[in-house]
Amino acid sequence: MLSDHKKGETYSIYLLIKAAEKRTTSKGSPYIRLTLTDRSGEIQANLWDASDQDVEKYIAGRVAYLTVLQDEYQSKAQLKIQEIRLANDSEPGDPSLYEISSPISKKDLQSQVSDLLFQITNPTWNRIVRNVLNKYADKYYDYPAAEKLHHAYRGGLAFHSLSIAKLAIKVAELYPQINLSLLLSGALLHDIGKTVELSGPVGTEYTNEGQLLGHIVIGDEILVESAEELGFDLHSEDMLLLRHLIISHHNKLEFGSPIPPRELEAYVLSKLDDLDAHIQMITAALNKTERGHFSEKIFGADNQPYYRSNADLPQNHD
Amino acid sequence: MLSDHKKGETYSIYLLIKAAEKRTTSKGSPYIRLTLTDRSGEIQANLWDASDQDVEKYIAGRVAYLTVLQDEYQSKAQLKIQEIRLANDSEPGDPSLYEISSPISKKDLQSQVSDLLFQITNPTWNRIVRNVLNKYADKYYDYPAAEKLHHAYRGGLAFHSLSIAKLAIKVAELYPQINLSLLLSGALLHDIGKTVELSGPVGTEYTNEGQLLGHIVIGDEILVESAEELGFDLHSEDMLLLRHLIISHHNKLEFGSPIPPRELEAYVLSKLDDLDAHIQMITAALNKTERGHFSEKIFGADNQPYYRSNADLPQNHD
Amino acid sequence: MLSDHKKGETYSIYLLIKAAEKRTTSKGSPYIRLTLTDRSGEIQANLWDASDQDVEKYIAGRVAYLTVLQDEYQSKAQLKIQEIRLANDSEPGDPSLYEISSPISKKDLQSQVSDLLFQITNPTWNRIVRNVLNKYADKYYDYPAAEKLHHAYRGGLAFHSLSIAKLAIKVAELYPQINLSLLLSGALLHDIGKTVELSGPVGTEYTNEGQLLGHIVIGDEILVESAEELGFDLHSEDMLLLRHLIISHHNKLEFGSPIPPRELEAYVLSKLDDLDAHIQMITAALNKTERGHFSEKIFGADNQPYYRSNADLPQNHD
Amino acid sequence: MLSDHKKGETYSIYLLIKAAEKRTTSKGSPYIRLTLTDRSGEIQANLWDASDQDVEKYIAGRVAYLTVLQDEYQSKAQLKIQEIRLANDSEPGDPSLYEISSPISKKDLQSQVSDLLFQITNPTWNRIVRNVLNKYADKYYDYPAAEKLHHAYRGGLAFHSLSIAKLAIKVAELYPQINLSLLLSGALLHDIGKTVELSGPVGTEYTNEGQLLGHIVIGDEILVESAEELGFDLHSEDMLLLRHLIISHHNKLEFGSPIPPRELEAYVLSKLDDLDAHIQMITAALNKTERGHFSEKIFGADNQPYYRSNADLPQNHD
Amino acid sequence: MLSDHKKGETYSIYLLIKAAEKRTTSKGSPYIRLTLTDRSGEIQANLWDASDQDVEKYIAGRVAYLTVLQDEYQSKAQLKIQEIRLANDSEPGDPSLYEISSPISKKDLQSQVSDLLFQITNPTWNRIVRNVLNKYADKYYDYPAAEKLHHAYRGGLAFHSLSIAKLAIKVAELYPQINLSLLLSGALLHDIGKTVELSGPVGTEYTNEGQLLGHIVIGDEILVESAEELGFDLHSEDMLLLRHLIISHHNKLEFGSPIPPRELEAYVLSKLDDLDAHIQMITAALNKTERGHFSEKIFGADNQPYYRSNADLPQNHD
Amino acid sequence: MLSDHKKGETYSIYLLIKAAEKRTTSKGSPYIRLTLTDRSGEIQANLWDASDQDVEKYIAGRVAYLTVLQDEYQSKAQLKIQEIRLANDSEPGDPSLYEISSPISKKDLQSQVSDLLFQITNPTWNRIVRNVLNKYADKYYDYPAAEKLHHAYRGGLAFHSLSIAKLAIKVAELYPQINLSLLLSGALLHDIGKTVELSGPVGTEYTNEGQLLGHIVIGDEILVESAEELGFDLHSEDMLLLRHLIISHHNKLEFGSPIPPRELEAYVLSKLDDLDAHIQMITAALNKTERGHFSEKIFGADNQPYYRSNADLPQNHD
C-alpha cells in the first residue's frame, strides 16, 4: 500500500491509473502526468519521454505495476518512475481493488439507510424520503459528497448522510424537543442535489447545472417534484419545514444558503453536517501525520494545522 | 395634501386611517396610535383619552377629517389632533383616493408589460413568462416590491419589474452581445416569488413561506412548476439560464443569492435591479428634502445622506 | 405563574423582587422600577409615586403580593401595578421558590458529574479535573454559564458543562478516533474561569478580573495552579492538550480564543459548546412563542427569528 | 490571427513583439521571454539558447514571422517556437497593424465626444469639460482605462468614458430627475486622473504620482486647476457637485473613494462605470470561451467563471 | 463647577446656555431643551411649561443662574431645574468663562507652533506650511479637531496638531531614518481641511463642502493652491510627499484615505495621529470614572470600557 | 558583503551556510538548496549535481568560499555557483562573523535594560520584571522577536522590547497621565512568551507549545508562576494590570489577544509595539530599494510597497 512507504524509499507496487494527461516539457519533449491510487491514498508521477504507445497504454482505469523512488515536489509526495508496465491477466487488475471508497459497503449503506427510515414516523416526510431515495438510488449510493475537501470518494454522499443521521439520533436522545423525524429526513436528503451538481464518482467535476443552480436549489427542485408526484401541498407546514432544512443547511448566506436556519432542526442539521465533515477532514489529515507533530494546514478547517498526539487512545467503550 | 404642510402649522385635512392600535399610557389611560395617509405621504398621530366608541369608530380603512397641529417627535413629523371625526357621505370617503400607489395605473402597467412580451423572441422564455404572469396576474399588479425600503406601495412589484425591463432595452441597444429576450424575461420575473413571500399590498408583512423559503427559492419553484405544466425540460439550457437569472439576482451570496451571477445577462439583471431600486429610494428621500440640504440617512443606500442641489433641472430631452 | 397570563389580563400573584431601582419621572416625581420574577419568567413594573417607606420596603430579595394589569411597552410585556404589599409570614416568602434555576437539582448535578469522572481514564486529566472541581465546587454548581444569552441562571454553569459532557459521550460512540478522556475533561472545565469572571448567581455582572483577563485566561491560570499543586509538568503533552482545549474553546480568534483549535478534541469541544448553547437559546425563545409563529429575533443565534411548528412531537424514543 | 488557432496546432504567423526579456535557465543558459501580440490577443513564448544577436534583434516594437506549436503552460496558452525571423520590408511590419486598440477609431472617439458636449447645457460644467479635455487631449484619446483588468488598450480611457456617457443618456431618458449635464460631465472626466496615474498606452505601469496620490486625487487636482484658470469659484455648488462626482466614483471607501456618493448623479455614475467595466471584462472572457462552457475565473468579476451559452443571439434591433 | 456635583445633590450654579431648543410634550405643552456648560463639562436640562418670554430669554450664548437637582436619564446625568434666571450685570456673564477650550491658550499655541517651524529645514515644506498657516490662521487656532469624539473644543485643531508634532520630534529622536521636516509639516497640516469641513468652534456641524468633499480632499486642494501661489511644481517630489502625507493620514481606505501610507513618514504620521486622539479620548473618559471602576464604553476606542486604576501615579519625571 | 553586489555581477565571497537541503531535480539528479548569509543579508543558491561528499560537507553552520554570478529568479536575487569550497583554518570561519544580529550588542542590551529597571518604581512590577528577566535571561537576549517579518535575528527579542521601552519613556514625557512604571514593565515583558513559543535564534520555528498555547498565554503563565514564587496575590490590582498588558498587546481579538486593551497603558503598549515593528519592517525594505523607487510589497505593512525618496535626510538633531 502507498501509505506504507516514505520519502527516499525505492519499491515496487500495483497502482490504478486514475488520470493520465499528455504534456510537453518546456524543451518540447512529451511526457505523461499520471495520477496513481490505491485504497491508502493518491500520488503523482511523471512518465518522461513517453512514446505514442505509452500514451495509448497508460490511460485512466488501467492497473500498472511500477518500480519507483518516492520523492517530494513542492512539499507534496511524488513518485520517480524507474520501471512501469501494465498488470497482466494473472495479476490483481480489477480497478475496484484500488479505489478509495466509503468505509461501509454499498450494501450496508443501503440496509442501514433502510433501517433508519422506520424512525421517520411522520408520513409526509417518510414518503418523500422514500420517493426521492428510490428515484436517485443509483447516484445516491455511488456519488462522493464533494469534489474534494471531505468524503470525496465513491459512496461518500450516502456515507456522509448516514453519519449525520446517526449523530441526529444521538443528539435527539439528549434533547427531547428535537423532532427526530424531521431531522432524519433532512440528514438523509440535505445533499441530494449533489447527484446533479457533480458529474459522478470518478474524475468528479461540477456540471453546468451545478455551476448555474448549485446543489441547494437543485435539492429544493427535487423536493418540489417529489411533492407534485405524491400529491402533497407544497405550502403545507410539513413541506415548508423539510424544504427549509434543505435550503438552510449551509447555515449562513455567505456559505450559499439563501435563507439561514430559522427552525430548531434546521439549525441542528447545519451544525451536525459541519461537525461530521470536519471530523472526517481532520482525521484524514492526522492519518498522514506522525505522532507528536502537526499535520499540513487543512484548507477546509480554517486552514489550521492539527496536532497528532503521542497518546494511544484508551478504549472508549467496550 | 400632507406634503403641503410644515412643522408648526395648524390645518384641517381628510386622511385615510391606515392602522389604528389601542394603547395605554404609562399612567394607564387608553389612547389610539393612528397611522394616517394620503397620496403624498404617511404620518403618525395619537388620539388621547380614547373612549370605547372611539376605538370602534377610528379603524383601519376609514377616512377621517381632522384638525391638527403638525409637530415633531424624535425627528419624525407627528400630528397633534385637535379635532377628529369620520368623513360623512357627502365627503371624499373612498380609501383608494388616499392610498400611495404606483405612478403608473394598473391598466397601463398591464398594457406596457403586454407590449414588452413581443420583444421576448425565444419561444421557451416567452411561454414561461406568459404562463407565470397569467397565473399570478392578480398579485403581480397589486403587490409592493418590498416590505419597506423601495417601491413599497400597491403595484410596486409590477412597476419596479417594468422599470428594469425598460432599462434592459436601453442597455441592450448599446451592448449587442446582450440577449435581450433572456434579460427581459429575467427582469419581468425576478421578483415573482414576492407574491408568496409577502402578505399583500396593505399592512405588508413576511408570510411564513416567505421567512422559511424566501422569494428567491419561491421564484425558482414557480419556474419549475411552470416548466412542468408547459412540458419543458428543466435541464435544457433555456430553463437553466432563466432559473439562473432568478436565483442570482441578489448578486452576492451574502445578499441571499445561493449562486452568484455566472452569465452575462444575470450580471446585468442584478445591477439594473439595484440601480432602479436605489434611484427610487434616493429620489423619494430627496423629495422630502429642502434644496441645498442633505436628506436623512437612507438606510438602503449605504446609510448615506443625499444632497439635493439648488439647481433647476434643465429639460433633458424634448 | 407569570407564564400563565397574557396581555390585557388583570390578576393577583406572588413574585420575587429581583431588582428595585429608585427613579424620578421627567416631571420630578419619584417611582420604583421593579424587576419581578417567578420560575416561569421575569417582568418589569413601575411603582408610581413611591414614598420613602416604599423605597425601604420593596427591595431586592423580598417576595411581594401584587394585583396587576398585564400590558406591553415597546413590545415587551410589562405589569401595571394596581395593588402591592409584601408577602406575610403565612405566605410563600422563600426567594428560592421563585428563582429560575437549573432544570437539574444541585445534588443531581453533583452526582452526575461524579459519575462522569470515572470515564476520564487518563490519570493526569482525572486528577486535574477532580482537583479543580473540588476547589471551585461552591461556585461551579451555583454560577450561571453567562451574564445573559444562555444558561443565565443559578446552576447554569454546571448544567451546561454536564450537557456538553453528555454530548461528548454520544459523539465519541460514533467516532472512535476521539479521545473521550480528553474531551470530557475539557467539557467539564472549559468555562471554569467564569467562577472568577462573573460576580455570582444573582445580579450577575463581570468582575474587574473578568473584564481585564477574561474567563479563558483565568481558566488557564486555574489549570496552571492546579498542575503546580499536583506536581505535574506544565509542558507535558497531557497538560498542553488540556490547556489547549480550554483556550481554544471559542473556536475563532475574533470570539476570544487566543489560539484556534488545532487538535481534534479541541475542535469537537468548541462545536459541542456552541451546539448546546444554541439549542438552549432557541428552545427558550420558542417556549415563549405561539405555535405557527416566529419567535423574537434571537440575538445569540445570528439575530434570527425561529419558527415554532404546529406539529406535536412524536415520541422520539420510549 | 492568434485567436484562429488552438492548442496542438502548428502554424506560421506574423506577430508584434510587445516585450522581450533576457533570462537565464536554472542551468545557466540564456533565453528570451517574448510577449507576442496581434489584434486578436496576446501570448507568451520562450526563445531558447538565445545568442547575443538574438537579444539585439528580437526587441519590443519589432514584427516577427514565426513558425510555432501552440501549447499550454499552467493552463495558459503558450507558443513553442520552431522558427523565427524578423519581418522583411515587403511584409506587414507596421506595429499599429498588430496592436489591440479601442473598437472605435481615435477620430471617431473625438467626434463623438465633441457631439456629446452639446448636451452639457450647464455653462460651468461645459466650460470645465472643454478646458480639461483640450489640455489633456493627447493622453485622453491614447491612454488605456486601466493597467490590466478592463479597457487595457490604446484609446481605452476615452472609449470607456464615452460608453458611460452613452449609458448616461439612455438612463436619463427613463429617469427625468437625473441632471444629464452633470452626469455627462462626470462620465467624461471621472478617470481623467489616469492620464497622470498611468505611464502611457504601452507597457502601462503606475507612475510615482499614481502610487502616491492615485487618479482620484489627481483628477480633483485637475478640476481645481481648471477652475482657477477659468476663474470659477471652487466652492460654488456647480464645482462642488462635479468634484464630488469625480471623488466618489469608486462608490465605497474601501475601493478608494474618500467620500461615498451622496448625490443622485454621483451614485448613478459610480454604477454605470461599474456596469460598463464588467460588461467589457465578461465579454472579453466569453470571447475566449467555447459555447456551452465556462470561462476562466474573471478576477475583476468577483473571481467567478462565466457561462457562454449555445444560443445564437436573436437580432436585438434592426 | 459641574464636575464637583453628583446625582441626588441640589445646588446653585452659573452655567452658559450652549443650545436652547423649543419643544412640545406629547400632551402639547411647550418646554425648552437646554444644553448647559461650564469648563468642567456639559449637561442637559428641560425647562418645563416655558412661556414665550422664556423662549426669548434663554437662548444660546447667555449665562444663567440656576438652582437644580442633579438626576439621571437613560444613564446620562441631567438637571431638574428648580429655579432659573439670567445672570445680571454684576455676575460673571462672559461666555468665554464657561467654554471648554484647549488646555493651552491660543497665544501659547501660536508661539509653540511658530517655534516648531524652525525645525522644518526643507525650504519647500517650510514655505508651504507658513503660507497655509498664515492664510488659515483665524480658523486653525479656533476650530475643534472634530465634531465630537476627540479634541471637540475651541482650539482643538491646533492643540491636536501640535501634540502630534511634539510626538513626532520624540519619535524622530529614536529613529534617525525619519525625515523630521516632512513629518512635522504633515503633523501641522494634516487636518487643515477641517477648517472648511466643519462649520466652526461652536455648534460644530459638517458643512456642505465637508459632506461632499471631506477634509482630506479639501486639505489637498489647499496644498495645491498654496503651491500655485508660491510657484512650486505640483509634481516635484517635495510636493508629492507632503500631499501623500495629507491624503494617507487615515491609514486605511475604509477610513477615508484614497491611498494608504506608502512612505515611512506617512505611516508614522497616521499612527501618531491615532495615538494622540486615543489618549485624549481615553483620558477624557477616565476623568469621569471612579477609581477601581470601568468607564462607559468609549465609542472611538473600539467601543471598549476602560479601567481607571486605584494607583496614584508616581512622578514620571522631575 | 552581499549587499555590495548587484544582478549580473560575478564575484567571490565568504558566506555562512544557514540551511542546506538535499533535493532532486524533476529529472532525478540530486542538488543542494543552500541558504547563504552574511551580516548584510541572505540569499539562495543551488549546488547542482551534488555528490554524497558535497551533501556531507556543505551543511548548516559551515562557512564557505564561493565564486558566484548574481542572478534573479521570480524577482528574488539568487546566486549561480561557479566554484565552492569550505573556508580553511586561516580564513574567517567563525559563524558569528556572518550572522545577522541585533544592532546593539548583547552586553549593551543587558546594560540598557538594567538601567531602565530603575524607572520602574512600583515595587511589585519591579520585582516581577527582575525575577522573570533573570530566569529567562539566556533566551531573552538571544531569541529573535519573530519567526520572520520583523526583528527576526539573534537578539531581536530584547532589542525590540528595549526600543518599545525607549518609545514609552518619550511618550510618557508628553502625557503625564501615563503610568510609566506599568508601561515599561509591559514593554520589557510583553513578548516573554516567545522564549517558549519559538525554538531559538537559528532556524527559528514554532514549538509544539507555541502552536498549542501561543506566546500570549505562555507569557501570562510566566507571570502567574513568577507571582507564585514571589508570593504576590494574583488578583491584586498590580498583577491584574500587568497581566492585562501582556494579554491585550495584540490590540484586537482577531490578532490573538483574548481581551482587547481596556486600560490606558495597555492601549499605548499595543500601539508602540506596532509602531516599532512597522518602522523596522519598512526601513529594512527601503534599505533594499533604490532612491526614487518603490520597495517590494511589504507583507507585514498591509502588503503595500513603500517609496524611498531621493532626498538626503537633514541632520535631525546634533
From TrEMBL, chains A, B, C, D, E, F:
Pfam families given in the database record: HD
Coiled coil: none
Domain HD intervals: 157-278
Span of the signal peptide: none
GO molecular function annotation: exonuclease activity
Biological process annotations from GO: rRNA 3'-end processing
Keyword vocabulary terms for this entry: Exonuclease, Hydrolase, Nuclease
InterPro entries, A to Z: HD/PDEase_dom, HD_domain, HDIG_dom, YhaM_exoribonuc/phosphodiest
Name of the protein: HD domain-containing protein
Organism ancestry: Bacteria, Bacillati, Bacillota, Bacilli, Lactobacillales
